[in-house]
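User: Second chain of the day. Same drill as before.
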Amino acid sequence: MKAEVERRYGRVRDAMVAGGLDAVLVAGSEYTGFEGAVTYMSGFQIVHRYAYVLLPRDGDPSIVFPAEARYVGEHGSTWIEEQVFADRPGEWLADRLTGKHVGVYGLDYVLSVRDFVALSHKANVVPFDVEFDLARAVKSDAELESVRDSVRINTEGFWAFLEAFEPGKTAAEVLAPAEELFVAEGCGRLTMNMVLVGAEFAIARGDTILGEFCIPSLEVAGPGGHWVEVSRALGTPNAEVERMLEAYDEYFEAARDAFHPGVTAHDVHRAVSKGFTERGYHLGHVTGHSIGMTMIEHPKIGEGVDTELEENMVFSMHPHAIAENGRDCLYMQDTWLVTADGGEPLAGLPMRVFGARERRRETTSA
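Assistant: Same format as last time:
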C-alpha cells in the first residue's frame, strides 16, 4: 500500500506544483456524499460528521476532524500519523496555513462555512476540484482490482433485481434482494439504487408500483470504496423505446472505438450521442463521467470538455434518452475502462432489454 499512497500523493503534488500551491486541503463530509475523497487520500472512511486531509507540497500529511468525531469512524484505518481533533478545525487549519496559497477540493459544496471563514482570513484559498479529480482519474492496478470487484457486485445485484422483478410488484420489493446482496458483499451504505418513473429518477419506495417496463438505476461501491454503475432495462418496451434501443446499440459500439488515450471527452460525447441526437432525442442527464471513490468526478463526457483521456481512466456511461413527449425514456448504465485498444465495458452484460420473466441462463457476454 505504501507505493500506492506515494503514487496518489505524487500525482496530487504534481497538480499542486502546476497550480503554484503550497498545500492542498481535501474536504469530505458524510452529509454531502463527497466522503470518498478523504478515503482516497487517507484510507479513512467517514462514518459520521466530516474530515479534512491536508497535504503540503513538502512534508507529511495531516487528517483533521471536529472534536466530536473521535468515536464515529475507525481511526486505525488511516495511514496518516498526525490525526487532529479540533474544536474548530478551520481555526487549526488557518494557524497551520497562514500566508499559504491553498487549493481546496470541496470548496463550494463540502467545506463548512465556519471553517471556510476561519481559513480564508489567514490563507489564500482557491478551488481545486477539477485538478484533484484529474489527478486521481487514472487508476492504478490496485485500484482497478477494486473497480472490477465493485462491478462484479453491481452486476450480481442486477441479476438479483431481475430475478425479483414482476409487473405489479413494488419498487421496494424488487430492489430488496439486490440491496441485501450489496450489503452482504461489503458495500455497507455505499449504495444509491433507484428506478426511473417516466424520465425521472425516484427512490425505490413501497408505494411505487412497477409496470410492464422497468428501468433500474443501480450504483454501488464495493469494499475497496470504488463506485461503479451497471444496469439494464427490464420488461416490454413500447415502439418508441425500441427505437431508442437502436441508438443504444450504436452508442455501445461507438464507445468501444471512442475510448482511446488522447481522445477528448468532447469527442467521445459526440461519438456516443450521435445515434440519439440524429433520432431527435433529448439527453436528460450527462452522457457519462469519470467515477472513482466519489461517484461523480471530473472529467464528464460532455459537450466542450477538452480533457484528453488517458489509459486506465474509468467512466460511468448512461445516455438518458428522452422522447418528445417527455415521458418515454431509456437509461442503461455501464462502467467503462479506457485501454490502449479502446473501451472495455467491465460488466460484460449484453446491450439489450431483459424480459420480465427472464432468468439468468447465461454468463456475461459483451
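The two ends are 33 Å apart (CA to CA).

User: Great, on to the next one.
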